[in-house]
Amino acid sequence: MNDPLSPSPNESSTPPRPCCTELRCKTMYYRPDERPGRLHHSDTQTYWCELTQDPQGPDGADATPLACQPGRACYRAE
């Protein structure tokens, strides 16, 4: 099955989204297209902030590719 929103690589996968360079997830350690500052969004993926080592950032808000964007006080760019 080729799901364009799937975190597994396939021909129809969308490119990773820009996000804070402190955001981490398990897939970035084995997917060649993910790296700090570029992650895929998934509703089932577990994300954490490298600064807090927690699913919330220093501001107490969730750490996800959709939430960790410019404008957030703790955001760090590439």
Descriptive report:
The chain is mostly beta strands. The chain has no helices and 4 strands. The chain has a domain of 54 residues. It has a two-stranded antiparallel sheet. It has a two-stranded antiparallel sheet with strand order 2-4. The protein is globular and about 30 Å long. The model has no long low-confidence stretch (mean pLDDT 88).
Helix/strand order: EEEE
Strand content: 5-15%
Provide the spatial order of strands within the biggest beta sheet.
1-3
Helix content: under 10%
List low-confidence stretches: none
Q: How would a textbook summarize the main sheet?
A: 2 strands, antiparallel
Spatial separation of the terminal alpha carbons:
33 Å
What's the multimeric state? single chain
Query: What is the overall pLDDT average?
Result: 88
Radius of gyration from CA coordinates: 12 Å
Task: Choose one word for the global shape.
Answer: globular
SSE class: mainly beta
Number of DSSP strands? 4
Number of DSSP helical runs: 0
Offer a few descriptive terms:
single chain; 78 residues; mainly beta; two-stranded antiparallel sheet; 13% strand
Describe, in short, the structure shown.
By secondary structure, the chain is mainly β. 0% of the residues lie in helices and 13% in strands.
Element layout with pairings:
Elements: E1 17-18, E2 23-25, E3 38-39, E4 47-49
Antiparallel strand pairs: 1-3, 2-4
